Model the fold of this input.
Amino acid sequence: MSKYQSDELYDERKEKIRSFVNSPEYKPMRISDIMYFFEVPSSDRDLFHNMINSLINEGKLILTKKEKVMTPDKMNIILGTFIGNARGFGFVRRDDPLYDDIFISPDLTNGAMHKDRVWCGIINEDGGRRAEGEIVKVIERSVSNIIGTYEQLRNFGFVIPDDKKTISDIFISKENSRGAVSGHKVVAKLIKPPTANKNPEGKIIEILGHVNDPGVDILSIIRRYELPVDFSDDIYKFIENIPDEVTPEEIEGRKDLRDLPLVTIDGEDAKDLDDAVYVEKLPNGNYSLSVCIADVSHYVTENSPLDKEAYKRGTSVYLVDRVIPMLPHKLSNGICSLNAGTDRLSLSCIMEIDKNGNAVSHEICKSVIRVAERMSYTVVNSLLTEENSPYIERYKSLLPMFEAMEELRNILLTKRIKRGCIEFDFPEAKIILDKDGKPVDIRPYPRNIATSIIEEFMLAANETVAEEFFWLELPFIYRSHEEPDEEKMEKLSTFISKLGYSLKGSKSHPKALQKLLDKSKNTPEDVIINRIVLRSMKQARYTAKNESHFGLAAKYYCHFTSPIRRYPDLQIHRIISEHISGKLNDSRISFLDKKMPETASQCSVRERVAESAERDTEDLKKVEYMSGKIGEEFDAIISHLTPWGLYVELENTVEGLVSLKTLTDDRYIYEEDNLRYIGERTHKVYSIGDKVRVKLVNANLSEMNLDFEFVPDVALSE
Done:
């Protein structure tokens, strides 16, 4: 065995190479010269080359055109991800989020495609302007398959990508067309990258159907994000051995909670019921809250085919017309679903909560439960808000518990608001489809006292579990949300000042942002301020270290309550169970400590993919729904301004563009600093938050955008 081949020695040797190249005395050398300097024996030269290549792929070293090894910073070269734009230019998103993206003009992309990993040379970095650069080298192609619409010409064709950030159409020779015809949605595999003068070349590997066929639009998005739909034969074979019912042997050693009248409260169409709750008012005035979560980790054993697939998926994906589950239905809708009247295995967090919302004591245990009733948000809301609810007689015995739930919900919510938790107030929409997948309505997403009860109870359990395992100092996965960048807070402060608002108190505390949201509530600019505050904040993510949760103003937070649909919940359930069973010895803890950062990163990545796919299907169906309403008028507010026009948002959450070209009654000047357009002659003003009347003039399904025009003679801000 080579002296470099153990992992530790290999990494140590790599670090020595990097330090050598990074030293002030270093002069650019070829790889062969560096090998000579380190006296590498001939038997280890291939391995040494691997080390250099590994450092290059990690972005720590770069090979110049003269094949000399340098560090990127000495050459003013940045490693990042290329973000394409339909107009031909792009940006390089740096790995360090503290720095702005680098603008790349169309003639300097050097064949880079959307999401490619690239080396970017800095051309201009004026302190007052966005940095400009050029792509030096594409290190890694982000995708090998492109989803798009095929267009046939005489002896060849093109695939027009669905993702407009993929700048170039894909050339398809006749022999690589697979018999596709114009209008087919296809999957094209790249076989030649783009050059300065030529489009990328590909071959059709799958025909999804015609663009007008039912379901092809959503299937295209599934393929674009490479979402795994089917489970393999190995997984179906593995789950054959999972029982359909809880066995007596599985119950042994668990806390028996089957006498508690636990209930599940979900939407009417929910099938994977993974949380059940029970509340009791105690003689001392406190409340006992039991949050019982399906013990999925009992069935999804570590490193099994099922576990590996769940890890790869990371999360269930909720598209407009379907759910792509993390786990097969036998588990998600069967043995792991907390169906009423059946014994189920659970991990339970039982808390005693005082009148101030503090958990004065708690127990986290492995349990067996039997849900008494499967409730819906609609029914529970009716019981609590309607004096003559039609459900009172049916659920008479449970009504006192629901009333206690409402009391406890109010206490917990008051506590969260008092400590500064940010409560966004966005209008959310539910898109209703017919049997053929066509959108027939867009309705406000129901939010009521029942949805809030479950939200507060899940938050309480997540915080309690996270705090316990933080102080136990055991490996874990936390849900972290960092403080916003100071620069973004300054930009937010400048933006809202033009709307007549200001941030009171410490800008780095969530209370300041919540006060702003409270002050703007029920004003014309309410939705706008909610959106801009959200955009000013960082995205929450999964981490192996507790980094607190800014948005919730929580010191400790995790995702414990949805192991059927989220892998991080499943992973921490496994850790919790092992801790309760006394199986976390030193070697196991060491193994998990090394594993958790990678698991947290994978879960964060998969969450982002799922969110993007879900958002794309919603946008697609919104445009499709509106395509049948061309010529109709709508009330809207101006939500965003750009140099090319004004974006408006309808009451049903649909958004579209009023192009500057359509404002023909005057020449309008875009005043970015004042957040408005103003007519040069009439002095008519269009500002963010203005209520307007608009007419839909175009709906472009392929571009997923809507075009509106202002209806004349509607009063506007002067």
In short: The longest strand covers residues 359-370. The longest helix spans residues 586-626. The chain has 16 helices and 34 strands. Residues 486-537 form one domain.
